[in-house]
Hints:
Elements: E1 29-31, E2 33-36, E3 39-42, E4 49-51, H1 54-65, H2 69-79, H3 85-96, H4 105-121, H5 125-136, H6 139-151, H7 155-167
Antiparallel strand pairs: 1-4, 2-3
Helix pairs in contact: 2-3, 3-5, 4-5, 4-6, 5-7, 6-7
Amino acid sequence: DPGDSFQLLEPAGPCCGRSLFALQVGDRRLLFLRRTGAVLHPFGGDRGVIAVTPELLQFVQTLLGTTDAAARTSLLVHALGATDTRVAADAAHALAHLPALALGTTDRQRVFDALQAALASGSPTGSSLLEVAVRTQDPRGLGVMLDHYFAGQLPQQTAMLRRTLARGDAASV
């Protein structure tokens, strides 16, 4: 809790987000901050200073208020279908990094549907959803992956699918 006012420092080197300079009085932003000494810094470069949308704000508030791992996983799965692309993308990336994936049948199907759409559109969330699908070892998810692998329309996507499938259980694949 930084309080009503606080100092914020953003690095100015190459590859830094440098997103604070464009802020105007009255702008509403969602800030992801970390403290280094007495100073707060945006966490994640330009991904740490985000224009507020109602859907994004609701998602982050709900996610931060969810302490149960299963409920958090379910929230992330449902967010894959969000109309706010930032919410959907962040949900996919977060699911891929969860230490444990307890997905029921319906949640798995939602993940596989989102994976199908991401691979068909060439979305960058595809790589995260591939990770989730291979971790489930569910034949439906592996089927989506294999269908796109054998179609081989995009060489980079085919290579990514090959690497992901190689990490899966050989018997399942």
